[in-house]
Amino acid sequence: MESTNLKDYLANAPDAIAFLAPNSSDQELVTRAKERLTENGIHQDKIEINYDVQQLRTGDIYISYDPPDLIVRVVYEKKPNGMVKMKSIATIKL
């Protein structure tokens, strides 16, 4: 998907928090990922390293690292039983 979809989404979801789950302890990779996310419209202060999807709310963003890409997903539903449903909205080359 195009990252313009991500920018459109961010324009309409100013309170969305972005959970970055890089699955790596490589600080250089994490820094590059944050830079690429910022280039694509996610504010640095909204990005946090977090793997606990249970903390996500509807409308939040979950970013995982699937080499060589960052996969950006939006939470569209969080069920009472804790199940979190997401859909991919962008793939960003790292």
Provide keyphrases for this structure.
94 residues; alpha/beta; five-stranded mixed β-sheet; 2 helices; 24% helix
Overview of this structure, please?
- The chain is α/β, with parallel strands linked by helices.
- The protein has one domain.
- It contains 2 helices and 5 strands; from the N terminus they run H-E-H-E-E-E-E.
- Strands 2-1-3-4-5 form a 5-stranded mixed beta sheet, covered by helices on one side.
- The chain is globular, with a radius of gyration of 12 Å.
- The model has no long low-confidence stretch (mean pLDDT 91).
Summarize the structure.
By secondary structure, the protein is α/β, with parallel strands linked by helices. It is 24% helix and 35% strand. The protein has helices at 3-12, 27-39, and strands spanning 18-21, 47-49, 61-66, 69-78, 84-93.
Enumerate the spans where pLDDT stays under 50 for 5 or more consecutive residues: none
Structural class: alpha/beta
Q: Biggest sheet, open or closed, and with what strands and sense?
A: 5 strands, mixed
For the residues shown, what is the average pLDDT? 91
How many discrete domains? 1
- The best one-word shape is globular
The DSSP helix count reads 2
Estimated share of beta-strand residues: 35-45%
